[in-house]
């Protein structure tokens, strides 16, 4: 019987397979770490602002000025509320729950309320008249 020779191509293939498996394992570990927030800094206790009261756009000059538009859900569930910067970005587009708020300090905001009786609305600090049950309202609010 003859001597057994190692096949160099077989060793190279095995090495590539091992490297590929290690690379895949590294990607899985990095993905799991990033999903669990392992790369970000831990937030300080009590520093998180609840999303229901966080302003959609921050005021640029004075923190005490009233928002251009302020919407608060006053029923258990409020149908879709839509706020959009006129000619620009959508700020808010979803259903709300009791006590949840949305507001904008932008210069001009388009507002669509699926049920105007379900929400309390303030325009530049002044109460907006409530709608009838099931009434859909669409209006544009300019900054004053």
Summarize the structure in words.
- The protein is an alpha+beta fold.
- 19% of the residues lie in helices and 31% in strands.
- The protein is rod-shaped and about 90 Å long.
- It starts with 7 loop residues before the first helix and ends with a strand.
Q: Topology of this structure?
A:
Blueprint: H1 8-35, E1 69-73, E2 77-85, E3 90-97, E4 101-104, E5 108-113, E6 119-123, E7 126-127, E8 137-142
Antiparallel strand pairs: 1-4, 1-6, 2-3, 2-5, 5-8, 6-7
**What is the overall silhouette?**
rod-shaped
Determine the structural class based on helices, strands and strand pairing.
alpha+beta
In sequence order, what are the helices and strands, one letter per element? HEEEEEEEE
Overall average residue pLDDT: 81
Main sheet record: 4 strands, antiparallel
The strands making up the biggest β-sheet line up spatially as 4-1-6-7
Low-confidence runs: 41-62
What is the total tally of β strands?
A: 8
Which terms summarize this structure?
144 residues, 8 strands, four-stranded antiparallel sheet, alpha+beta, single chain, 1 helix
Task: Provide a brief overview of the structure.
With 144 residues, the protein is an alpha+beta fold. The chain has one helix and eight strands, in the order H-E-E-E-E-E-E-E-E.
């Amino acid at each position: 019987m003859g001597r057994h020779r190692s096949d160099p191509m077989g060793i190279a293939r095995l090495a590539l397979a091992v490297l590929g498996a290690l690379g895949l394992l590294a990607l899985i570990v990095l993905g799991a770490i990033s999903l669990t927030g392992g790369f970000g800094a831990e937030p300080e206790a009590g520093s998180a602002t609840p999303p229901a009261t966080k302003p959609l756009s921050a005021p640029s000059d004075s923190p005490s000025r009233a928002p251009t538009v302020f919407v608060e859900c006053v029923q258990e569930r409020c149908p879709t509320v839509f706020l959009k910067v006129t000619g620009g970005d959508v700020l808010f587009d979803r259903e709300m729950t009791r006590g949840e708020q949305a507001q904008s300090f932008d210069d001009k905001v388009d507002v669509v309320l699926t049920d105007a009786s379900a929400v309390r609305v303030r325009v530049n600090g002044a109460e907006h008249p409530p709608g009838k049950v099931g009434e859909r309202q669409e209006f544009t609010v300019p900054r004053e």
